[in-house]
Amino acid sequence: MVKCGLARDDTAKDAILILDPLTEWREVLGAIKRKGVIAIAGICNSLEGRDDIGHFMPNEATLYEAGFDFVLFTHLFQGRNASSAPPGGSPSIFNGFDVYSATQRIKLLEKENYIRVCSVIPLSETAVGYCDVVASLLGISSHNPINTVLARSDKAIMKECIADAGLRVAKFARIKRTCDVPNVVSNLSLQFPIVIKTPQGFSTKDAYICDSENDAMSKVDIILNGKVAPDRRIPTLALIEEYIGGEEFEVNMMSTPVRIECTDVWLYRKTIGEGVVRYISADMMDPGEKKLEMIVAYATQVAAAVGTVYGAAYLKLKATYCEEKQQYIDPCMIEFGARISGGRKTTLTRAVVKGWQPFEALIDAHCGHNITFPQSFSPGDQHACQLFLPHQISGKVTEFKETLSTYHSHVLLGKVGDVVERTTDIASFGGFVWLAGPKQAVKNDAQTVWEFFSLQTEPVEKEFNMGRITGVPNLESLWIGNLFSLSQIDSILENPKSAGSGSMVEITILTLLSSSRLKNFARDCVDKQKEKLESKGIAIHHIVVDLKDNCDPNFLSGPLPLAVDKIDDAMCLSSSISGVHKYCLIHCAKGESRSVAVAAAWLMLRRGLTLQDALAKVKRARPNANPNLGFVAALHAIEASNNDIDQAAKRLCTK
Fold it and tell me: Which residues form the Tyrosine-protein phosphatase domain (predicted)?
């Protein structure tokens, strides 16, 4: 029998409550079943309203099928033989995050089914903020301190607690308004790049690396005026942080009242570009190595500082290697979670560390039992590695290749036929591969995994990529699209209102991008189309205008006038050449912001449309049109200045 921290009716059946069965939940459930106790799943964050991460949370049917005895919802608790979930799916147990009402329902569940909940285990970031409160209300003594709950769930309070313990943290500040960014950057003496993030996170979701003040302001605006945060709250604050250099590590730990033990350490390889981090791999290291001594000590001190006494915890940190000391030094926290980490690292550690049963240890820790740790957490001659499979481009998944014979496991976050966006964060990868085995074999497989284990993606159908602006008199040849429209330039001529037979045809492509890599990609696409179309007597002109998708105050005085002039040339407004059919395709990366703003501005400046009419015409061609707030402000300034772009620029600067 699993003993609970507070003695209650010894004749009742023991049960364990899992809040938000998200990270490694099947493994945790298996350990619960092996102990012969009742398994209860409670969903306090269904991730509704977040289509980008909502698919990670299993539904009711999946949880029951896997072996949970009870799954808890807002309005009732359902046993295995209960009726189906209410219309609309599985709602949250914590309607409005009311832990008191939720605990009342848990008590009722205990009474009606003659069970007692012995521990509450969180498997998501949101659950970390509630599990200790629920455990306390249930009379369970083996929970982390209530007075440090916020230190384990709020990133700002967390940093303050860690700093109070004398440990290094990044400089940071809370920010309420977009316009406060310049003052905060100055007051903290921050150097770019800097980090903008939500107060509560979901790994790298809603966290941005910003290279400029304008970029930072636009990201703060996204957080404060955009979608719900990963914990389903509407953020009223954003965090602005110092960017910490060095190599990135993850340290996983198991805590008891007696000790905090480091169980495994991982070193990340990644790339940083366009304001986002893209992980390549995570390699297991030996936590007993001398070079990791400061990292491990720092991690356990951080866990103690935020009140982690029972259960698993992980810390992501940065550190730099000192050749003189032969050690990583100056560790600094990036993220902390009082739960087991994602990425199946706990499962891989079990596979390579002899005698370690982490999921049983997790349950024992939360029940207040002693844990039997192995003599060493060294993987020895074994090794483990997590590989990240990105979507290199946005488009439709056409093929999944798997010919690698030696791997631990893999998971795909989509299927063939899905339309996907290019990978920008941890939740938008196409899948993951885990390797475990002899060190050299794992390293060899990791070197070749990209060749043998890949996701093949092609651009989506052309109607998704571009559209023709219609409804404007004497304008039949202005198109707007995204990056993938470049592979479908010839479809412009498939329209019955396009070029007449035997006429000379010129197509001007106006590329609005800032990334050198994307510009080169665009040039390559256009060059390929040139070879095909010029053989048919169709001339292709490619013009690239450097334009960032942010609130750049120079938009009206620099990039926009240049872009308008180029569209004029393409549409024959600046020339009197006759007998030549000219077409213009305006595109940016997604066809949502930059190209939309420029096309709308041209319609206002050259065709006299109001801002409302111009945006309506553009949105008819690109239904996903969504220019950033800086571009919208510029368009309003143009309209308020009677389409005088110079006056609009002055008006915008004086605001």
Answer: 444-644
Q: Are residues 21 and 135 in the same domain?
A: yes
What domain range includes position 95? 13-143
Q: How many CB atoms lie within 10 A of CB 104?
A: 12
HEC readout, 410-475 = EEECCCCCCEECCCCCHHHCCEEEEEEEEHHHHHHHHHHHHHHEEEEEECCCHHHHEEECCCCCCC
Residue 465: both structure tokens together: 């990529």
Type of residue numbered 419: V
Rg (CA), the chain: 28
- C-alpha 39/C-alpha 60 separation (Å) is 14
| Inter-residue contact 563 to 547 (CB < 8 Å) | yes
CA dist., res. 30 & res. 67, Å (int):
9
Instruction: Residue 474: count other Cβ atoms within 10 Å of its Cβ.
Output: 7
pLDDT in tens, 22-69: 899 999 999 999 999 999 999 875 544 444 444 557 888 889 999 999
Q: Which two structure tokens, joined as six digits, stand for 159?
A: 């940093």
Q: Rounded CA gap, 632 and 638, in Å?
A: 10
**437 shares its domain with 534:** no
Given 431, 458, 485, the domain boundary residue is 458
CB 609 within 8 A of CB 584: no
* Residue 330 included in any domain: no
Domain annotation covers residue 321:
no
C-alpha to C-alpha distance for 508 and 572, rounded to whole angstroms? 11
Quick one: tokens of 322?
A: 């000192």
Contact 127, 93 (CB under 8 A): no
Q: 85-94, 128-137, 319-328: which has the minimum mean pLDDT?
A: 85-94
The answer to whether residues 513 and 551 touch, using CB atoms and an 8 Å cutoff, is no
Average pLDDT over residues 508-518: 87
Residue 309 lies in a domain: no
**Two tokens, residue 613:** 């009419």
Residue of 201, 172, 200, 151 lying closest to 305 (CA atoms): 151
Please identify, among 458, 490, 516, the residue that sits at the C-terminal boundary of a domain: 458
Q: Is the dihedral of CA 107, 113, 114, 116 positive or negative?
A: negative
For 579-623, the pLDDT digits (tens) are 678 889 999 988 999 999 999 999 999 999 999 999 999 998 898
Give the position of tokens 């030696």.
406
Residue 170 CA from chain centroid, whole number: 21
The CATH number covering residue 52 comes to 3.40.50
- In this structure, the answer to whether residues 603 and 469 fall within a common structural domain is yes
Q: For residue 299, is it within any domain? A: no
Instruction: Give the total number of structural domains in the chain.
Output: 4
Contact 467, 495 (CB under 8 A): no
Q: In this structure, are 639 and 518 located in the same domain?
A: yes
Question: Do 414 and 457 form a contact (C-beta atoms < 8 A)?
Answer: no
DSSP-assigned letter for residue 178: G
Residues 484 and 438 in one domain: no
pTM (predicted TM-score)? 0.65
- What are the residue ranges of helices labelled H in 453-556? 462-465, 516-534
In what helix (H) or strand (E) does residue 6 lie, and over which residues does it extend?
Answer: none
CATH number, residue 420? 3.30.470.20
475 lies in the same domain as 427: no
Dig out the tokens for 584 from the structure: 């213009």
